[in-house]
Amino acid sequence: MKQFTKKTSTNGSDRHFRNVFDTYFAELCHFAYSFTLDFDLSQDIVQETFIKYWKAKDNFLENGTTRAWLYKTTRNSCLDHLKSKRTKTSCRVEALELLTMEISPELGSMEIEEIKAIIASVLRDMPELSSQIFKMNRYEDLTYPEIAQKVNLSVKSVEYHMSKVLAKLRVGLKEYYFLVFFV
After folding, report:
1. CB-hemisphere CA count at 13 Å for 86?
2. pLDDT (0 to 100) of residue 9
3. Single pTM value for the model
4. Closest CA relative to residue 85, chosen from 69, 101, 100, 96
5. How far apart are CA 99 and CA 114, in angstroms?
6. What is the three-class DSSP state of 15?
7. What domains are defined for the chain?
């Protein structure tokens, strides 16, 4: 009788896992793609996320935190990949960490608009060159050497301007860290 109960329990958790996988796999792949810009890599990262979920699935059957955990784990895996790859400077990764709050599935549209307003305000308050460099890096996806060449500065100067903007963003967005990291 014990073995039958265990087998039924396993089948129930297998069905639960399959349901979670079917519900979130494509959604998480698109989310991961927004970090990696590589669909195959995004799928690999999401598959690894589901392997971690499988190993800990019993903790989620009754908990109701599955979606948030999947997104957080996928996000962290993407950022870990970017950090290890180091094709862009560390400031680019730091900027992604700060700005991914805009796409967090747990934030409401009101919080997103507030975050966008804070980012716009910080950029307005920065020297024009710092703001321009940040926008070229974040929105035009230019590398530091490319930016340095366009604005006729050294790469170190570009790094300096980016670090100043990121420091101000950290201060401006500090109240939203709780929403992002503890939801």
Report:
1. 1
2. 45
3. 0.45
4. 96
5. 13
6. helix
7. 1-87 (1.10.1740), 88-183 (1.10.10.10)
